[in-house]
């Protein structure tokens, strides 16, 4: 059975949440999306996630939520992590850390989608080996999910690309998050796994990775500590749309999707088959 899965890149603050609230449900309808996965580790004020925002994202149409290095920035999310089945903290954090190794969602069509969150180790805080951890977890999630997606929340492109090849043919899709800058390397690897190094950011694109330009630039130039406020201009939703076969466990198509909050005509979905943009207007 064919499933269309939308994976949304890092939701940053109120602007990111607002574009999800306004545009996601029409997008689901127009693109026949069966499951929505979103990285929400920056959804609360740009760092962390709260139970209230978690509930809002589900109402907006998100089905599965992944997190990253800011998983525990808002401590009241811990109970949600321990009780809900559709939210996953990075599996290669300490085995004693709160939360589930993977999230599970049963689609209306019947097949179940599972998502695993991993965190990188290059230029990041200490974590267990993501390659060893994913090898241990896959047999567990394969018993519960028909199709499996992996969110590799990492800084280094080399580390993400290596993970894509490590998982090729073993999961339906391996996508990267964390850098907030979309990459143009979406592809289906040799053994049938869809891959992209980074989905990009859902939030203000007139910014420095979601933060106000002026203070970030001043901090770089002066090396002085300054508050990095959430930017509000040129808000976009960055995502990928992946079509998978629940029987073969392989991806058939991966496309980049970008939706402008203001409905401008330059909103485009980039088809990896021919490299030409297909325009989706007024979502």
Task: Write a concise keyword list for the protein shown above.
6 helices, nine-stranded mixed β-sheet, Purple Acid Phosphatase, chain A, domain 2, 24% helix, 28% strand, six-stranded mixed β-sheet, alpha/beta, 283 residues
Share of helix, binned = 10-25%
CATH class placement: Alpha Beta
- CATH fold group: Purple Acid Phosphatase, chain A, domain 2
List the uncertain runs: 265-283
* Biggest sheet features: 9 strands, mixed
Question: What global shape is seen?
Answer: globular
Content-based structural category: alpha/beta
Helical segment count:
6
What is the alpha-carbon Rg in Å? 17 Å
CATH superfamily descriptor: Metallo-dependent phosphatases
Going by CATH, the architecture would be 4-Layer Sandwich
| Strands, total number | 15
Domains, number = 1
What string gives the helices and strands in order? EHEHEHEEEHEHEEEEHEEEE
Beta-strand residue percentage: 25-35%
CA-CA gap between termini: 27 Å
Query: What integer is the average pLDDT?
Result: 92
3D architecture notes:
- The protein is of the alpha/beta class.
- It has a single domain (2-279), classed as 4-Layer Sandwich (Purple Acid Phosphatase, chain A, domain 2).
- 24% of the residues lie in helices and 28% in strands.
- It is built from 6 helices and 15 strands.
- The chain has helices spanning 13-30, 51-60, 78-83, 130-142, 157-167, 213-222; strands at 2-8, 35-39, 64-66, 87-88, 102-106, 112-119, 147-153, 173-177, 187-188, 194-196, 203-204, 235-245, 250-260, 268-271, 277-279.
- Strands 1, 2, 3, 4, 11, 12, 13, 14 and 15 form a 9-stranded mixed β-sheet that branches. It has a 6-stranded mixed β-sheet with strand order 5-6-7-8-10-9, covered by helices on one side.
- α1 (13-30) runs parallel beside α2 (51-60).
- The longest helix is centred in the first third of the chain and has 18 residues, at 13-30.
- The chain is globular, with a radius of gyration of 17 Å.
- Residues 265-283 have low confidence and may be disordered.
């Amino acid at each position: 059975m064919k499933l269309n899965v939308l994976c949304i890149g890092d939701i940053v603050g109120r602007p990111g949440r607002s574009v999800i609230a306004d545009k996601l449900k029409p997008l689901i309808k127009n693109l026949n999306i069966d499951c929505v996965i979103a990285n929400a580790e920056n959804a609360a004020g740009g760092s962390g996630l709260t139970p209230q925002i978690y509930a809002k994202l589900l109402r907006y149409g998100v089905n599965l939520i992944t997190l990253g290095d800011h998983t525990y920035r808002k401590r009241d999310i811990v109970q949600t992590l321990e009780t809900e089945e559709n939210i996953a903290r990075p599996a290669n954090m300490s085995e004693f850390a709160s939360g589930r190794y993977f999230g599970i969602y049963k689609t209306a069509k019947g097949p179940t989608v599972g998502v695993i969150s991993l965190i990188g180790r290059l230029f990041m805080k200490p974590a267990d080996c993501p390659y060893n951890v994913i090898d241990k977890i896959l047999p567990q999630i394969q018993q519960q999910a028909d199709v499996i997606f992996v969110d590799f929340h990492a800084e280094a492109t080399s580390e993400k690309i290596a993970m894509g090849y490590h998982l090729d043919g073993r999961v339906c899709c391996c996508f990267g998050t964390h850098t907030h800058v979309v990459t143009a390397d979406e592809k289906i690897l040799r053994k049938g796994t869809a891959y992209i190094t980074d989905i990009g950011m859902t939030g203000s694109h007139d910014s420095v990775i979601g933060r106000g330009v002026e203070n970030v630039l001043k901090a770089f130039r002066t090396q002085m500590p300054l508050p990095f406020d959430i930017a509000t201009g040129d808000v976009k939703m960055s995502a990928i749309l992946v079509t998978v076969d629940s029987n073969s466990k392989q991806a058939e198509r991966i496309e980049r999707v970008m939706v402008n909050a203001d409905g401008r005509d330059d909103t485009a979905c980039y088809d990896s088959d021919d490299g030409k943009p297909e325009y989706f207007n007024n979502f």
